[in-house]
Automatic annotation (TrEMBL), chain A:
<dbReference type="Pfam" id="PF01944">
    <property type="entry name" value="SpoIIM"/>
</dbReference>
<feature type="transmembrane region" description="Helical">
    <location>
        <begin position="267"/>
        <end position="285"/>
    </location>
</feature>
<keyword id="KW-1133">Transmembrane helix</keyword>
<keyword id="KW-0472">Membrane</keyword>
<feature type="transmembrane region" description="Helical">
    <location>
        <begin position="297"/>
        <end position="317"/>
    </location>
</feature>
<feature type="transmembrane region" description="Helical">
    <location>
        <begin position="228"/>
        <end position="246"/>
    </location>
</feature>
<dbReference type="InterPro" id="IPR002798">
    <property type="entry name" value="SpoIIM-like"/>
</dbReference>
<keyword id="KW-0812">Transmembrane</keyword>
<protein>
    <submittedName>
        <fullName>Putative membrane protein SpoIIM required for sporulation</fullName>
    </submittedName>
</protein>
Automatic annotation (TrEMBL), chain B:
<dbReference type="InterPro" id="IPR010432">
    <property type="entry name" value="RDD"/>
</dbReference>
<protein>
    <submittedName>
        <fullName>Putative RDD family membrane protein YckC</fullName>
    </submittedName>
</protein>
<keyword id="KW-0812">Transmembrane</keyword>
<dbReference type="GO" id="GO:0016020">
    <property type="term" value="C:membrane"/>
</dbReference>
<dbReference type="Pfam" id="PF06271">
    <property type="entry name" value="RDD"/>
</dbReference>
<keyword id="KW-1133">Transmembrane helix</keyword>
<feature type="transmembrane region" description="Helical">
    <location>
        <begin position="44"/>
        <end position="71"/>
    </location>
</feature>
<feature type="domain" description="RDD">
    <location>
        <begin position="26"/>
        <end position="148"/>
    </location>
</feature>
<keyword id="KW-0472">Membrane</keyword>
Length: 323, 231
């Protein structure tokens, strides 16, 4: 069959499909039940056109039509519904239980340096200054002065919402970097988690040493439950990626990376959610100096228990089949 | 052959329908341009929110930081998931993010490729991403490699109509496959190539037509029209 004849015979179908696929963009116009069949016909036309050496213009027209159809036929359900949010939470829990080893490694990577640094900073002041500059130390002392109306970072005219925004952009940024650093063979993740552990240890040790523990502990305990767990989880996601690159096992390195990333991102869903909660608490709850210390400590302990229980012991993650 | 394979930016995928369909991968330059366009859009939103938040004091500053955070990390995710893989910048440059099997990207892939932006940015100005794009076979930055996504050119509808004034004529001798293809594409593209260049190309096929100059070109186009099936 000559090209012109071929084109004349089938162009009504092509025009029909072109009109359908281009008009339907954006809105949710659903093609009718004949669409898959028509699309497959056009696929056949494309391979025929190639095989018969028809002109480039015709082949590229068909190729374009096939691409439009392919995108329409194989599109995913991308609506964001509450149901999906719940499903994301369940997949997060399942992934968290499955990847315990990484979570444990990440937790140790965070806690051990924090302990060493904390004890060191508590015992000797010069140890603190290996991590914090004297200016930073002075600033910390000012921040946790029991006489302050609001605790945490300096607050003059800023409101709690400002701090909420600040914590979101700053803390979640750190967690995202811990995840992304995994692609450099995990080194970036190790660096971010280790540094944050050391920093936390130094701050805690130093403030305890100078006797400001009274204000510092009630401040951190509440949001710390969410924030520190989330940083450990995001670190675990980064370690998964790094491990896949170092030890891909039976897969090619790129395939291993892709699989690890698609698993790791499930951890990130939960991590991000927890960081939002942490930022909210840090801005509106932890900073309040009106509440009695005992209330803050006990509520904080309750937060810790419930977060750990929810993440590792609740039956929510185990009940559903992993998808 | 080797050189042309290295230069070729087309990539084909076999679909469940059993056909190979091809797309052109987008190189670093267009992607950088698309990124800059997006940056301008984001900058405009930043400026707008900045001005508004100026009136609202601390409350406004908080809002500014939150929106800034969302813009920084989730602006591309939003457009990739809800706008068929095209941020405004990509749309302007005719690009689109797709999975490696050319299906539209979903939440997971989009979140991965955009969170890994932090790694692509490292140590500054997307140096890692650029290196990865240049070194990988399909111009993938680190985020694309991890998420299994590609940035492709969207084909534009452009069917150059055949010049109706060409009179079809039957070739007088057997033509090889390469000759047929050459003649057909010369005929189809005759509107987009300058007259002197067309004649230059026709000279190469002088042994086939047996005539040189303008008459040779005329004859070639006639053969092309005949091969396309015009009567």
């Amino acid at each position: 069959m000559k090209e012109t004849e071929f084109e004349q015979r089938y162009s009504p179908l092509w025009l029909l499909l072109e009109a359908l696929l281009e008009a339907g963009r954006g809105d949710d116009k659903v093609p009718d039940e004949h669409f898959p069949e028509q699309y497959r016909q056009v696929c056949g036309h494309l391979s025929m056109a190639r095989q018969r050496d028809y002109s480039d213009a015709l082949v590229s027209r068909l190729n374009r039509l096939v691409m439009l159809g392919h995108h329409r036929l194989y599109q995913r359900d991308s609506r964001a519904t509450l149901q999906r949010l719940g499903a994301a939470l369940a997949t997060f829990l399942i992934a968290l239980r499955q990847q315990r080893r990484y979570v444990l490694c990440s937790a140790l990577l965070f806690i051990l340096p924090a302990l060493v640094m904390g004890v060191g900073a508590y015992l000797s002041e010069s140890f603190t200054y290996s991590m914090l500059s004297p200016d930073q130390a002075a600033e910390l002392e000012a921040m946790y002065d029991p006489g302050n109306a609001r605790l945490g970072a300096e607050r003059d005219s800023e409101t709690d919402l400002f701090m909420f925004g600040y914590y979101i952009s700053h803390n979640i940024g750190i967690a995202f970097k811990a995840f992304a650093g995994g692609i450099f063979l995990g080194l970036g993740t190790v660096a971010v988690v280790l540094f944050n552990g050391l920093y936390l240890g130094a701050v805690t040790g130093y403030l305890t040493r100078v006797g400001l523990g009274v204000t510092f502990y009630p401040f951190v305990i509440g949001h710390g439950a969410f924030e520190l767990t989330a940083i450990v989880i995001c670190g675990a996601a980064g370690l998964m990626i790094g491990h896949a690159l170092i030890h891909p096992g039976r897969w090619g390195r790129l395939d291993a990376l892709r699989q690890a990333a698609s698993e790791a991102v499930k951890l990130m869903y939960g991590g991000v959610f927890m960081l939002f909660v942490a930022a909210f608490l840090e801005a509106f709850w932890s900073s309040s100096s009106q509440l009695p210390v005992a209330v803050k400590l006990s509520v904080g302990a309750l937060f810790w228990l419930s977060v750990l229980w929810f993440c590792f012991f609740s039956s929510l993650g185990t009940r559903r089949e992993p998808r | 052959m080797q050189a042309s394979r290295l230069l070729d930016n087309h990539c084909s995928v076999e679909t469940p329908e059993g056909i190979d369909f091809t797309q052109a991968m987008a190189g670093p330059v267009v992607r950088i341009l698309a990124f800059l366009i997006d940056m301008v859009w984001r900058g405009l939103v930043y400026a707008l929110i900045g001005i508004l938040s100026g009136f609202l004091g601390g409350f406004g500053m908080g809002l500014y930081l939150i929106i800034g955070f969302l813009l920084e990390w989730f602006y591309p995710v939003f457009f990739e998931v809800f706008r068929q893989g095209q941020t405004p910048g990509k749309k302007a440059m005719g690009l689109r993010v797709v999975n490696e099997d050319f299906t539209p990207v979903g939440w997971g892939a989009s979140v991965i490729r955009n969170l890994l932006r932090a790694a692509d940015f490292f140590p500054l100005m997307y140096v890692s991403g650029l290196l990865s794009m240049v070194l990988s076979r399909r111009f993938q930055r680190l985020g694309d490699l991890a998420a299994g996504t590609l940035v492709v050119h969207v084909d534009r509808q452009s069917a150059p109509q055949l010049d109706v004034s060409i009179k079809p004529r039957m070739p007088q001798q057997a033509l090889t496959r390469a000759e047929r293809q050459g003649i057909i594409s010369l005929t189809v593209r005759s509107r987009t190539i300058s007259e002197p260049r067309q004649q230059e190309l026709a000279e190469l096929l002088a042994p086939v037509t047996g005539v040189t100059g303008e008459a040779g070109l005329e004859r070639l186009k006639g053969m092309g029209a005949w091969l396309l099936g015009r009567k």
